[in-house]
Write a structure and sequence with these properties.
- By secondary structure, the chain is of the alpha/beta class.
- The protein has helices at 9-14, 28-34, 37-47, 64-74, 94-99, 132-142, 162-169, 238-246, 268-285, 301-314, 329-332, 347-350, 364-371, 427-432, 454-460; strands spanning 51-55, 78-82, 104-108, 121-124, 150-154, 176-178, 180-181, 189-192, 208-212, 215-219, 229-233, 252-256, 261-264, 288-293, 318-322, 340-344, 361-362, 411-413, 420-422, 440-442, 448-450, 485-486, 489-490.
- Strands 2-1-3-4-8 form a five-stranded parallel β-sheet. A five-stranded mixed β-sheet has the order 6-5-11-12-13, covered by helices on one side. Strands 15-14-16-17 form a four-stranded parallel β-sheet.
- The chain is globular and about 85 Å long.
- It starts with 8 loop residues before the first helix and ends in a 17-residue tail after the last strand.
- Pathway: Protein modification; peptidyl-diphthamide biosynthesis.
């Protein structure tokens, strides 16, 4: 368990920092090639942008200043470096860019390719090294049958080598499908790629085209994605986990370009699904839900928040919204009255491992499973919250209240505690549009009773309610000079203390 209320300064000083592969090269010429500055300058100049926000992940920050100088030298634009992103570095930080009134954003490094709606955007993934020959050899070893139906997925930082890999494989494997990176951005988004898959090989008149997580591929007519195996190129991480959770009926294999090894992914995904199902049962038992805003850039995030508020209220639960930037254990530990949190974020950051948190953190899909009785657990898993919205591929409407069932309560058995749980929402409350938040509720024509707020009742019942204000009891005094120095050794410390055996030594 992480130490929540304090951190070790020694651990911070000794913590290792992973250095990106881009730092291995210090020559300006290779820097221009690695960060594809020529293409970036072409994008800025053609669109006549004057203020450009450059968003770097933490591991790329050592090169940020040199990249910024090169871009300003080749264009007339003023650049601003966005180093500390509000949320995950894979998401485009449009809010930070708007603070400097930027005309566009250049996003460097790995990306979840979540759609954005505010500013023009350019993706520069970089070029992680990969041995295409070894990757093809690992593929042939994992799939000895040349008639295997395989879909090739990859981390965006290896997109520059996928064209060469396709050339090596597709003549031998006629049923191999190579995915294509594609963006869904209303303001215009471009990808800087030297070698990508030709779209002519993706789309066919008879094939069914699938577009998900910024990847587009096609499956043959009469077949589904479940009939294919998945081959992923990249390191184990959130991207692979997201793919495996979404297409959990497919057999997955992967190739790690750093270790030059291929492997069959194990059945751990089933254990992960069971953990997520446990979190759904916790959400069913919860009465107070905290909605965590984990993105301000992904399209339709406000719409899903309003939808979550609505279904949580209809399920008889209370909801509170929290916007706190990057989520960690100490932040969420401050709100003990919250039974469970639901995180609204991009598909990759939604799958948060909450094992160290005091309260579970679930996804919008899991919260809908807990609140909407019309949505059943079928093994399907949705990580993109846009699929849950009206018109989405996985949208399920909330059941309309029944006039004949006013006042009735439905019960269920908790699989965690074994106790009966009751849905506390009455149909009359939803039909009439009344809210539980009002302090006075009429019971009949002549009598009115007070209905206390749920949060206020919880706080009044807590054993510790904060420091006593003692209003009017504390004397007013003038400001006086405080201690000087640092906490470990104030200048006046030890003066006049008879018990002090040795004076403070200055180093």
């Amino acid at each position: 368990m992480t130490d929540v209320f304090s951190s070790s300064s020694e651990a911070v000083l000794q913590r290792p920092v992973s250095v990106s592969f881009l730092r291995t090269d210090s020559h300006a010429g290779n820097l221009v090639q690695l960060y594809q500055i020529a293409e970036t300058c072409h994008f800025i100049t053609n669109n006549q942008f004057k203020k450009v926000a450059l968003q770097f992940p933490d591991e790329f920050l050592p090169d940020a200043v040199r990249v910024s100088v090169e871009i300003e030298k080749e264009t007339n634009a003023k650049t601003f470096i966005l180093g500390d992103t509000s949320y995950g570095s894979c998401c485009v930080d449009e809010v930070a860019a708007e603070h400097v009134r930027a005309d566009c954003i250049v996003h460097y490094g790995p990306s979840c390719l979540s759609p954005c709606r505010r500013l023009p955007l350019l993706y520069v993934f970089g070029k992680r090294p990969i041995d295409v020959q070894q990757c093809a050899a690992a593929f042939k070893e994992l799939y000895p049958d040349c008639q295997s139906h395989v879909i090739i997925l990859y981390d965006v930082t290896y997109s520059h080598a996928i064209g060469d890999l396709r050339t090596l494989l597709c003549e031998i494997y006629p049923n191999v499908v190579v995915s294509l990176l594609k963006t869904d951005h209303s303001c215009g988004a471009k990808l800087v790629q030297d070698s990508c898959v030709d779209s002519d090989h993706i789309e066919s008149q008879d094939d069914r085209v699938i577009f998900k997580f910024g990847r587009q591929f096609s499956v043959k007519a009469g077949q589904s994605v479940d009939n294919y195996s998945m081959f992923y190129i990249g390191q184990e991480g959130l991207t692979l986990t997201n793919f495996m959770m979404t297409w959990n009926h497919c057999a997955f294999s992967s190739f790690n370009p750093e270790t030059h090894t291929g492997r069959v992914e194990s059945v751990k995904i089933n254990k992960a699904l069971m953990k997520r199902y446990y979190a759904i049962e916790r959400a069913k038992d919860a009465s107070v839900v905290g909605i965590l805003v984990g993105t301000l850039g992904v399209a339709n995030y406000l719409t899903i928040i309003e939808q979550l508020k609505d279904i949580i209220h209809k399920a008889g639960k209370k909801s509170y919204m929290f916007a706190m930037g990057k989520i960690n254990v100490p932040k969420l530990a401050n709100f003990l009255e919250i039974d469970i949190y639901v995180l609204v974020a991009c598909p990759e950051n939604s799958l948060l491992d909450s094992s160290e948190f005091y309260k579970p953190v679930v996804t919008p899909f899991e919260m809908e499973l807990a609140c909407n009785k019309h949505r059943e657990w079928t093994g399907e898993y949705v990580t993109d919250f846009r699929d849950l919205l009206p018109g989405g591929s996985s949208h399920v409407g909330f059941p309309e209240p029944d006039q004949s069932a006013i006042g009735e309560e439905t019960t269920d058995v908790s699989l965690i505690t074994g106790a009966l749980r009751t849905c506390s929402t009455t149909s009359s409350e939803i039909i009439n549009g009344t809210s539980e938040s009002s302090s006075l509720v009429p019971r009949n024509q002549t009598l009115t009773v007070a209905n206390t707020n749920t949060a206020a009742s919880f706080l009044s019942g807590r054993s510790w309610q904060g420091l006593e204000p003692k209003l009017g009891q504390t004397p007013v005094v003038k400001a006086v000079a405080g201690r000087r120095g640092i906490a470990i050794a104030y200048e006046e410390e030890g003066v006049g203390n008879k018990d002090a055996s040795t004076p403070l030594q200055k180093s």
